[in-house]
Structure formats: C-alpha cells, structure tokens
Amino acid sequence: DDAPCKVDFWLRNLQHLSQALGALNIPLLIRSAATWDQAPAVLGQLCRELSVESVHVNEEYGIHESRRDAAVAKALEAEGVSFHSYLDQLLFQPGNVLTKTGTYFQVFSQFRKVCYARLHSALPRLVATPKAQAALALNSDPVPQQVDGFEAPSETLRALWPAGEDEARRRLDAFAEQQISYYRDERDFPAKPGTSQLSAYLAAGVVSPRQCLHAALQSNQGEFESGDIGTITWINELLWREFYKHILVGYPRVSRHRAFRPETEAVAWRDAPKDLAAWQQARTGLPIIDAAMRQLLDTGWMHNRLRMVVAMFLTKNLLIDWREGERFFMRHLIDGDLAANNGGWQ
Q1: 228-249: buried (b, 16+ CB within 10 Å) or exposed (e) per residue?
Q2: pLDDT tens digits, 55-65
Q3: What is the pTM of this model?
Q4: What percent of the chain has pLDDT over 90?
Q5: Is 263 a catalytic residue?
Q6: In the annotation, is 345 catalytic?
Q7: What's the CATH number where 301 sits?
Q8: What domain range includes position 329?
Q9: Catalytic: 322?
Q10: Is 196 in contact with 179 (CB distance < 8 Å)?
Q11: How many Å apart are CA 278 and CA 325, to the nearest integer?
Q12: Residue 187 has pLDDT above 90, yes or no
C-alpha cells in the first residue's frame, strides 16, 4: 500500500546515500526479492558470492519485517554467517518500556512518564558518520529510477521534498533555530508553517529520532520537561511516534488490519462507496475536508490537524470503516509509516 510518491522519495534518497557511501569507499549493493519469503535465499546467495562473515541490520517492526529478519538470521547462521541487529528507528528498545506488570503500554501519558525517567538517566547517543575505508574492487549497483507498478510523481511534488541527508539536516536545524519555540501555539493551524516538515525524512530513515531529540535539547539548554514550551511539545510528538512503534510490536494485531481495541470490531460500519469516493476525491462539499484531501493528493502530505479532521469525518460522520481511510492514506502519503498511520486512525 505504499504511495508512489513515497517510493520515488526513497529511491531519490538511495541515490544520495549511494553518493555519500561512495565518498567513503563503501559500495551500495541492491538486491530484489519478489516476496518476503525470498529474502533469506537472496541474502544468502549474496553472502556466498562475497564471502561475507557477518551481516549487520537495523531493526524494523512490522510483523512481516520481523518475520523476515528472523528467517534471514536463521538461514545465515545456518551457513556460518553471524547476524547482528541494532536499534535505529527508535529511542528505546521495544520491550524495555513496560508497565509494572510487564506488558506494553496502551496509554500514552503512562508511556511518556517512563520514557522521561529513562531520558533523565541516560540520553540516547548520536552515532558518528563512519570514516572512509580502504577501496574495494566492487562497484555500487545503479539505483533504479522507478519501481514497476509505482507511477513517478510530478516534478512539482518532487520539488516539495528534496532528497538527501543534507536537506533533512537543513530542515531540522531551521526548525530548531527558528520555529520550535512557536510549535505549541502554531502546530494546530494548517495555514501556518508551524510544523517541522520532517516526517517524510524520519519515515525514510534519512534523519533519526536521536538527531531530532538532540537538536531539540540543544535549543532548550538540555531540558525536555521544563523550559521552552514549544520544545517540550515537540519532544512529546517524538514520543508519540515512539509509542506507536511500541504498540506495533506489543500488539501485532494492528499489523493485520485488526482493531487495537477489540471491542470496536463490533461497530456496524456503512457500506457507502459513493460517500467514500467523494471523501477520497475531495468533493464532499465541505471546504476544510476537501481542502485537506486536495493537499494530500497534490503534495503527498497533510497537516496533522487536518488528518484528525478528515479521519473524524470519515468514521464519525460518514460511519465508514477506519481501515478504508488508513489504506487510502498509506497509498498517498510520502511520510506513510505503518505504526504512525495506524495509530492515528485508531
């Protein structure tokens, strides 16, 4: 269900990554697998070709991704290749922020309280860029310009989302220096540029939550619970993102199009394809709903407050299943992230 503009954005970022790695004499190799189940065989073949002794990966948390990585680890270790995984997308390892009874949190305020305690004791450290290594007799693979089945977006949309780590860092620095103090007061007004516009870069792994946290702390004398209220509010948003990822791990049913709260499965949703199409095509006749949907269709992004408004309208007014909205968003958002999108809709 990934959006074509998201696939294009990731490919453009891969091109920048290939160039950055090339400067460090690190070739970027690209291999394809048609299904999740084929990943162990594809990576096993690569390891045999290059006499690889160990594989190091960053963790992903969807149910398919977790199963893939477990299968890859088992297959590689059977061939004598060690497998190492690392925390990357999050500040805290899933399973390490739990209730007193050892379960995953279901309430954000309680989850945040534990996260604050962890941050007080030790901040997640920034990871330095690796140094250049000795050149290898191995060339990088060309990064595809397009993936079959995903139409290239317009140049106008592409221009809104320049690729690369330098652009992500520029946005982060500009936000931390110029806008973060106004974040609490301006984030809920869609007509104002009150948000960081970093969500697509976070979803693609171009900037890390650790970089975001440290930039925010630097703007607030190292404080995350006191001081500048805009900074405190933005750090809370980083923790919301964290919370949704932990939910994905702790309650894997949400990866299977199931309700987070099982009792809501009994809701009698309307089968109203014409109303759904009107919502999707920005022709409900309600100005704020249609403007929000046009923003999504034209830019690949929607202001967070508007995401809440259109979701409320679809589910509470039209009584259409939230899964229809969740799927449509993922098919159009350049920052589409399973955990955050599912959490927002549920």
Answers
A1: bebbbebbbbbbebbbbbbbbb
A2: 999 999 989 99
A3: 0.95
A4: 94
A5: no
A6: yes
A7: 1.10.579.10
A8: 257-345
A9: yes
A10: yes
A11: 12
A12: yes
